[in-house]
Amino acid sequence: MPHAHPEPADPGPPQQHGARSVAARRRAVWGLGWAIATALLLTVAVGLDGAILSGFDDSITSFTRSWADGLGWPVDVAHGIGLITAPRWSTVAAAVVVVALFVTRQRAAAALLAGSAILGVALTELAKRTVGRMRPPGAEQFEPDLDRSFPSGHSSAGIYLYLATGMILLQLARHRGSRALAGVGWTLVVFGPLLGLTRLVLGVHWPSDVLAGWAVGSIGLLTSAVLLWWALDAGWRGTGRTSQAEVPTGPSGA
Asked: What residues does each domain of the chain span?
């Protein structure tokens, strides 16, 4: 019996699709506003010697250390994940995905990921150099730069790179009807935010560093998405039409 491939998603009437797209973009703008506000508030709080956040950070760090250090293996797993998602390897991964998207004519998606990563890295490095927060005690076992704790770079990359890539793959899977792409996409969507939690298990960041990393990564992703929204929208729909008709109907992406 031949294997049945799932049908590409039907975009629906143009008017209905347009209304949904406008509403989704509006939510993205609101999300961007919340991410900016969260990042600013956390930066100000940490800049005031961290006194406002000390109780929150100390209690969660102590709880995490009590069970993670006791078991041992969670720390080893977190260390391994930290190594394979280090900046150099994340940069290589981002470059490979961007090139692959561009070659397959998903140019708006390639621009989304490139813009998300560039802005995310720039904001993260700017905050690290400006704030100069010390890492938790014991972090020197795994991290040499002890005065660059805020925000968490891994947490930020989990959003602007891994979550962003997962969302792109889910959109492509939806319009191409690919379960394999959807599986990889959902894996990255879940992995992205969880990457920040591994930094707490490893003991190299305060909880507020992770929250700030998520906020900064969201700023990179959402800014890029809002600016490229209509080009992306046209690219996704172009992918769906090409997949259904099996003939080219114009360039996919911007």
From this structure: 18-245
pLDDT tens-place string over residues 79-112: 999 999 988 889 899 999 999 999 988 999 999 9
93-122 exposure pattern, b = at least 16 Cβ within 10 A, e = fewer? bbeebbeebbeebbbbbbbbbbbbbebbbe
Work out the burial of residue 28: count CB atoms within 10 Å of its CB; fewer than 13 is exposed, 13-18 middle, 19 or more buried: middle
Average pLDDT over all residues of the chain? 86
Q: CA-CA distance, 117 to 224, in Å (whole number)?
A: 9
Report the pLDDT value the prediction gives residue 162, as an integer from 0 to 100.
96
The predicted model gives 65-71 an average pLDDT of 87
Domain 18-245 fold is Vanadium-containing Chloroperoxidase; domain 1 (1.20.144)
pLDDT digits (tens, 9 = 90+) for 200-214: 999 999 999 999 999
Confidence bin at 253 (pLDDT 50/70/90): very low
Q: Which of 106, 94, 101 is nearest to 156 (CA)?
A: 94
3-state helix, strand, coil in the chain (%, to 5): 75, 0, 25
